[in-house]
UniProtKB/TrEMBL annotation:
The chain crosses the membrane at residues 21-42, 48-68. It comes from Streptomyces lavendulocolor. It comes from the Bacteria. This is Integral membrane protein. Keywords: Membrane, Transmembrane, Transmembrane helix.
Length: 82
């Protein structure tokens, strides 16, 4: 197919998906670190640590925005090919 993206080319939204994945992983690690004291019987972390856990959701939203941007770009490309 001639309309396929070459392997080395970055499509619109790829950067958002990568950034969202990184933010999600940071939030996931923060969640594991924050929950660990509950199982270990130590003192819990301050509330700001729990706020960092919210990065999981933020990363998911960023990645979703990247996917939607990629979909929109592919639709525009398909519409212009007609």
């Amino acid at each position: 197919m001639h309309s396929e993206t070459p392997a080395g080319a970055a499509a619109p939204g790829d950067g958002l998906v990568r950034a969202g994945g990184i933010v999600f992983v940071v939030g996931a690690v923060a969640t594991l670190v924050t929950v660990a004291p509950l199982f270990l019987g130590t003192d819990p972390f301050p509330p700001i640590a729990y706020a960092v856990c919210m990065l999981m959701g933020v990363g998911f939203l960023i990645a979703g925005a990247g996917v939607l941007r990629s979909i929109a770009a592919q639709r525009r490309q398909a519409k212009s090919a007609l």
